[in-house]
Amino acid sequence: QVQLVESGGGLVQPGGSLRLSCAASGLPYSYYVMTWYRQAPGKERELVTRIGAIGRDTNYADSVKGRFAISRGDAKNTWNLKMNRLKPDDTAIYYCNIGEYWGQGTQVTVSS
């Protein structure tokens, strides 16, 4: 049974930083394309960033370019999302996704 679990969300002031993590279990292989999405209240889910299977190729939504960085974790089938210079508009539930599998999401709130 495949399971994706996000962690690291919380409340942070504007300009602050957070690091989200996604850990996948039950996957048969070691290399997967992983995508972070987010969904703000009243808005559609949007792609934030994606990393290729071996961690070399990344792309980012324009709204987070230069502030967020996705990477593979040290442990097998783990990924990190470092978020810097956070803005109130970054407030959302953040989800990790691999193919048909989704995590339950972690809440990020940026507020003073």
* Uncertain residue segments: none
The fraction of residues in strands falls at over 45%
What structural class do the secondary elements suggest? mainly beta
- Principal-axis shape equals globular
How helical, in percent, are the residues? under 10%
The ordered string of helix (H) and strand (E) elements is EEEEEEEEEEE
How many helices in DSSP terms?
0
Gyration radius, rounded: 13 Å
Q: Number of DSSP strands? A: 11
Compute the separation of the termini in Å. Answer: 40 Å
- For the report, how would you describe the main beta sheet? 7 strands, mixed
Mean pLDDT: 95
Provide a descriptive summary of the structure in words:
- Strands 2, 4, 5, 6, 9, 10 and 11 form a 7-stranded mixed beta sheet that branches.
- The chain is globular, with a radius of gyration of 13 Å.
- 0% of the residues lie in helices and 50% in strands.
- By secondary structure, it is mostly beta strands.
- The model has no long low-confidence stretch (mean pLDDT 95).
- The chain has no helices and 11 strands.
- The chain has strands at 3-7, 10-12, 18-25, 34-39, 46-51, 58-60, 68-72, 78-83, 92-98, 101-102, 106-110.
